[in-house]
Design brief:
- The chain contains 4 helices and 7 strands.
- It is an alpha+beta fold and 151 residues long.
- It comes from Massilia violaceinigra.
- Keywords: Acyltransferase, Transferase.
C-alpha cells in the first residue's frame, strides 16, 4: 500500500469519492452534508492524499484544506475492502505532517454522529470536540473537532 499526494480528478479517485458520497447520503440529509466537490478539491489551498493498494487501485483518500488560521480535514474515506489496516490513520498522519511543514498549528474538522468509527479514529488521533467553526452552524448531525499540532 502507498499513500501519496495526488490530484482528485482521476477516474478511480472520482469513483472512490462517489462511494463516499453515497455512504454519506445514506446517513445524513443534504442540508447536513458539507462535502467539497471535485472542483473545490482541486484548488491550490488543498492537499489531497490517496491510498492505493498493491495493484495501484485507489482505496482511500483524505483532503487537507488550508484556511487563513487553520487547516481543515475533509473527505476522509477508506473503501470497505481496505478497512482494518490503519489506512485512515496513515492518511491522517501524512496530512498532519504536511500541516507541520506549512507551519499551521491547528486542524479542525466536521463529521457526523452516525460515523462511530470516524469519531473513534479522530479521538485516538488526539482530536477533541469543539463548537462550530468557520461557516458551520450548530447542527445536531454535525460533530466538530480540533487538534493542536506542535511544530
Amino acid at each position: 500500500m502507498t499513500i501519496t499526494i495526488e490530484t482528485p480528478d482521476q477516474p478511480d479517485v472520482i469513483a472512490l469519492i462517489a462511494e463516499l458520497d453515497a455512504y454519506q447520503d445514506s446517513l445524513y440529509p443534504p442540508e447536513s452534508r458539507h462535502a467539497l466537490d471535485l472542483a473545490s478539491l482541486k484548488q491550490p489551498n488543498v492537499l489531497f492524499a490517496v491510498a492505493r493498494d498493491g495493484m495501484g487501485a485507489a482505496i482511500g483518500c483524505c483532503a487537507l484544506v488550508f484556511r487563513p488560521d487553520f487547516g481543515e480535514i475533509k473527505r476522509l474515506y477508506v473503501n470497505p475492502c481496505g478497512r482494518g489496516h490503519g489506512i485512515a490513520k496513515k492518511l491522517l498522519a501524512l496530512l498532519e505532517a504536511r500541516v507541520i511543514d506549512a507551519n499551521c498549528q491547528l486542524l479542525m474538522l466536521e463529521t457526523g454522529p452516525y460515523q462511530p468509527e470516524a469519531l473513534a479514529l479522530y479521538a485516538v488521533a488526539g482530536y477533541q470536540r469543539r463548537g462550530p467553526f468557520a461557516d458551520y452552524t450548530n447542527d445536531p448531525l454535525s460533530v466538530f473537532m480540533q487538534k493542536h499540532i506542535a511544530a
